[in-house]
Amino acid sequence: MKYEAVIGLEVHAELLTDSKIFCGCSTKFGSEPNTQVCPVCLGLPGTLPVLNKKVVEYAVRAGLALNCTIANFSKMDRKNYFYPDLPKAYQISQYDLPLCSNGYIEIEVEGGTKRIGIKRIHIEEDAGKLLHEGTDGSLVDYNRAGVPLIEIVSEPDISTPEEAYQYLVKLKSILEYTEVSDCKMQEGSLRVDTNVSVRPVGTTDLGTKIELKNLNSFKAVQKALEYEIKRQIKVLEEGGTIVQETRRWNEAKGITEPMRTKEEAHDYRYFPEPDLVPIIVTEEWKEEIRKTLPEMPDAKRERFITQYGLPEYDAKVITSSKKMADFFEKCASNYHSPKIVSNWLMGEFARLLNDTGREIDEVPITPDMLIELLKLVDDNVISGSIAKTVFEEMFFTGKNPQIIVEEKGLRQIADEGELRRIVRKVIEENPKSVEDYKKGKEKALGFLVGQVMKETKGKANPQLTNQLLREELSK
Ligand SMILES: [Zn+2]
């Protein structure tokens, strides 16, 4: 029997508001534990929450960007559960009347686009953070308690781990564009849970679903789903049944492991939050928020193709991050070849960002600096390969390219006399290659160019080197 997977994703994103959802405490990440707390977010008796208006505004912004219907009437509810990271023993969330619903994201699949439904987006407060370090039990940091979150729940429209990955990449990019969340997974401001079931192809009933947790990257989501789908199919093929439960992804072993049996909604005893008034979003306010939405990734991609003549692939890669797209546009509007800019962004820049795990706005290179570097290549001051060395130096030190070139003596050798002397030396030292070249082996010329480059530490002007080598060899 052939099986197919049914996948749904739940994404929690911390909102970039300055203060928490129900009090004035700061939401800044990385402060000393328990320094950003007050009686409200510590859940002390007698305190009352006041909803931060910015939270509603940001959630509506995200909802509009994700094509959702915005409820003009919604409310907050209490989700009751006991855990040391939750000081009130309930979380203020939204149950039956979420702020946003019925949206969608379009992802690219083989042969076109696929629409993945977004069932709902609701707002809620984050819990504190337990630290299980040391031997004297666990510690709790309440700085995160009350940080505003949106939870984005997809419809179970996702059929493969690859589609799940595409969905997450697109969702993150849209959230970054709207600037409602910084989406830093490493700081926990974006967290993903997924649930997956399998069923025989051709049937419509849903199988028993398994929730997966501890997914620290989009790649981990993809790998965990791949593993879990295989596992479930194997259980069914061996005549077993799937037990509804939550499983944890073990990255080191590459497997999922049982964590706990899954709670049902009734276990949480949801009821309306009596200390908060309902949330009313008027048409006027909604339209005001809509007007502040920036150009979204898909629209920007199309524009980059027509306005800058970028290939589809380049436009897609560059617009997947708003920061990258902004950087590109600042360069491209002041430089003659947008494609060269895009090559640098997707090549050296992306490689170094990847290696260092940094974001484009966390490195000291500005668009002006990159343009200056490109102009040094255009003016034959440095060669393309030396430019990569200079770029790396810029990346780590923030020094101006011109200064790096002077300091390190990287200026290209374009002096014909000097270069001819080196060319002659190389010819003298490589009689075998010279002979090969004269027998018609073009490859030998490449080797000799390489030797000149080696001799000059990459500083020889490539065109001139080629020209001089041919001249000298034909003598
Ligand atoms: Zn507080």
UniProtKB/TrEMBL annotation:
It catalyses: L-aspartyl-tRNA(Asn) + L-glutamine + ATP + H2O = L-asparaginyl-tRNA(Asn) + L-glutamate + ADP + phosphate + 2 H(+); L-glutamyl-tRNA(Gln) + L-glutamine + ATP + H2O = L-glutaminyl-tRNA(Gln) + L-glutamate + ADP + phosphate + H(+). Its EC number is 6.3.5.-. GO terms for biological process: glutaminyl-tRNAGln biosynthesis via transamidation; translation. SUPFAM superfamilies: GatB/YqeY motif (SSF89095), Glutamine synthetase/guanido kinase (SSF55931). Residues 326-473 form the Asn/Gln amidotransferase domain. Keywords: ATP-binding, Ligase, Nucleotide-binding, Protein biosynthesis, Transferase. The keyword Nucleotide-binding applies. It is an enzyme of class 6 (ligase). HAMAP family: GatB. Heterotrimer of A, B and C subunits. Allows the formation of correctly charged Asn-tRNA(Asn) or Gln-tRNA(Gln) through the transamidation of misacylated Asp-tRNA(Asn) or Glu-tRNA(Gln) in organisms which lack either or both of asparaginyl-tRNA or glutaminyl-tRNA synthetases. The reaction takes place in the presence of glutamine and ATP through an activated phospho-Asp-tRNA(Asn) or phospho-Glu-tRNA(Gln). This is Aspartyl/glutamyl-tRNA(Asn/Gln) amidotransferase subunit B. It comes from Caldanaerobacter subterraneus. The lineage of its organism: Bacteria, Bacillati, Bacillota, Clostridia, Thermoanaerobacterales.
